[in-house]
Every structure is written in C-alpha cells, then in structure tokens.
Amino acid sequence: VSHHHPEAVAGAVAVAVAAALATRSRGGAAPARPDFLRAVAERVPAGDVRSGVRTAARMPEHTSIRHAAEVLGSGYRMSAPDTVPYALWCAAGHLDDLHEGLWSTVAGRGDIDTTCAIAGGVIAARTGAASLPAAWHAAREPLPLAVYG
User: Fold this and answer.
1) Which of 13, 83, 94, 100 has the most other CB atoms within 10 Å of its CB?
2) Helix axes 65-72 and 80-92, enclosed angle (nearest 10)
3) What pLDDT is attached to residue 146?
4) What is the pLDDT of residues 2-59, one digit of tens each?
5) Strand, helix or coil at 42?
6) Spatial CB neighbours of 126, under 8 Å, sequence gap ≥ 6
7) Which of 3, 62, 10, 75 is nearest to 40 (CA)?
8) What are 68-77's contacts with CB under 8 Å, separation 24+?
9) How far apart are CA 97 and CA 127, in angstroms?
10) Pick the residue with more confidence: 2 or 149?
C-alpha cells in the first residue's frame, strides 16, 4: 500500500530521473550538485519529495552530512520524502566515486539500506559496474542462472 502513495510514486520518479541524468552525463564532467538536483526537481511531481530535492539543491557546498540528514531526513520516518532527497543529495555530491558516495550516505544514519540503494544506484548509473572495487565483485553472491542466465 505504501508504494502506491503519491509521494512514493514521486520518490520513484525522482530516483529514475536522477539515474537517467547520471547516465546521460557519462563521459563528461559530473554536474555540480545543485545543478543536478535542480534538474531532478524540475521533473518530479509537485509535493514533499520535490520540495525536499529543491531544499537539497539549495544547501551550501560546505553543508555537513549530519546537517543534511537532519534537514532532509535520512529514513527514520520511512517515507519517500524522508529518504529520497537525502539519498540524491549524497549521490549528487559523489557522482564519480561510488565508494565515497556510499560511505557518505551511511554517515547520515537512518534507513541506511534504502538510502544507500538509492544513492548507489544513481552513482552506478554514471560510473558503470566497472568502477566497483574488485573486492566487492569477489564478495557478492552469485545470481541464480535459472533466473538470470
């Protein structure tokens, strides 16, 4: 039921748009965090998620992770408006570094698995799987061939 809520849909749209913009930016300089977040917000339905992404875009460059998590929310309320803006803020600041992007996202605490999945997916959309550390590839669980092979 919660995933049918209009804000959940807006959150999914925001993440999809961010991943598309990250993919489109491959091969060039990473967009600046505020520019990237404004471009996402322009394409998200009106509501709390879009408002949160706009707030994230206005945060000063020197904003600490903890402050961003407090202002944007990092998942303690377990809703799209409380996870997506923060996760996208983290991703937008590390579009060329998945490892650092995930550690930054974790530092905000909250719903870490959700925020890291969002931030990591967006960053990986730009960097591709080749940028994953070799140790991560070696440690992953194999996918069942019957389903994915």
Assistant:
1) 83
2) 150
3) 61
4) 677 889 999 999 999 999 999 999 999 999 999 999 999 999 999 999 999 999 999 9
5) coil
6) 22, 23, 25, 26, 30, 95, 96
7) 10
8) 68/108, 69/107, 69/108, 69/109, 69/110, 73/110, 74/108, 74/109, 74/110, 74/111, 74/115, 75/110, 75/111, 75/112, 75/114, 75/115, 76/110, 76/111
9) 8
10) 2
pLDDT at 148 over 70: no
Whether domain 2-148 has CATH 2.50.20.20: no
Q: What residue type is assigned to position 142 of the chain?
A: P
How many Å is the maximal CA-CA distance in the chain?
49
Strands (E), the chain: none
What value does the mean pLDDT take over residues 109-116?
92
Q: What is the pLDDT of residues 116-142, one digit of tens each?
A: 999 999 999 999 877 778 888 788 888
